[in-house]
Design a protein that fits this description.
This protein is mainly alpha-helical and 171 residues long. Helix content is 46%, strand content 10%.
């Protein structure tokens, strides 16, 4: 199956009823999850992406409107990430990591998904994108309604035992 030659061809209701259904459902979702700006933006995305298999890749910028600062953005503290070897070999390093992780989780758990998270969820629900791959650890894509999320750096709401591999929810 080839790509449509234009967005109009991809959305033609007689030849492509699935595209019409996706567009209608997407408009309905956008109207309940973010208003006219999100709706217009999603309409344009549907037009440009019609007929393609797409996954969204997001980073810290998508969560700044939820009050979560960029990891390396303007005003962010200079960071020196701990390596896995440092974590495993030094009890003091593990303690420092867990304190920081707990404080970060408490902050992230209070944040709410924003229009960007809701737009990603609407695109997924409408079948325009196959899912979200995110560098963020805040869990806001899932809370916005996305169901197929790959957390590249893990998630602050889950912790795992380094000995047995058991995973636990923080809340």
């Amino acid at each position: 199956m080839g790509f449509p030659s234009s967005a109009l061809e991809a959305q033609h209701p007689l030849c492509h009823p699935q595209a019409r259904w996706r567009d209608t459902r997407l408009r309905r979702l956008a109207s309940t999850r973010g208003g006219a700006f999100v709706s217009d933006t999603i309409d344009r995305a549907v037009e440009v992406l019609a007929g393609r298999t797409i996954a969204l890749l997001t980073g810290a910028g998508v969560s700044t409107d939820s009050g979560i600062p960029d990891y390396r953005g303007q005003g962010a503290p200079r960071r020196n990430p701990m390596t896995g070897q440092q974590f495993l070999s030094d009890e003091a390093a593990r303690r420092r990591y867990w304190i920081g992780s707990h404080l970060g989780w408490r902050s992230f758990s209070k944040a709410s998904p924003n229009a960007g998270h809701r737009a990603a969820a609407a695109l997924e629900a409408a079948g325009v994108v196959t899912g979200v791959v995110t560098q963020n650890v805040d869990g806001l894509h899932l809370r916005a309604g996305s169901s197929r999320v790959v957390d590249l750096h893990g998630s602050m709401n889950r912790v795992s035992c380094v000995r047995c591999g058991q995973t636990y929810a923080r809340a």
